[in-house]
Amino acid sequence: MSVSVRTLLNEKVSTKIFFISKEATIFEAIKTMVTEDIGALIVVDNNVLVGIVSERDCSRKGQLEGRDPHLTTVGEIMVTDVVIVTPTETINDCMAKMKKNNIRHLPVLEGKKVVGLLSMKDVVYDLLTEQQHKINILEQRRSAKGYGADL
Length: 151
What we know:
Helix content is 44%, strand content 19%. The protein has helices at 5-11, 26-36, 55-62, 74-77, 91-101, 120-144; strands at residues 19-21, 40-45, 48-54, 105-110, 113-119.
């Protein structure tokens, strides 16, 4: 049984969400991501999600296309077709969406309110933890039945 997004958010060490305006510059976005040691920012306009911008967006759509990071706005490079999850979805749902859309960050929305941001690292760590738990249970059952470690 896969863990819910709500449970994962409750277990995260850091639940702080970082927002940026679409009028901010690429430089400001990069500076925030470096300072906060994060890989993406939620882009808002009047407290409503309008996009997401990642380090990859800044490097690929900014620097590699020759845009001036001090003059180019986040709104010019952000992803506007944002894939989201809700707190009731599962971690398996998150992984499927990330894989299908080739993305590394998923905003979590409850109604129209952003309540979290999950990274690929969050999702993979949780899936690995779940798998290790299942392995431990199987090993305990095997030991309880008297099977040797060489099986």
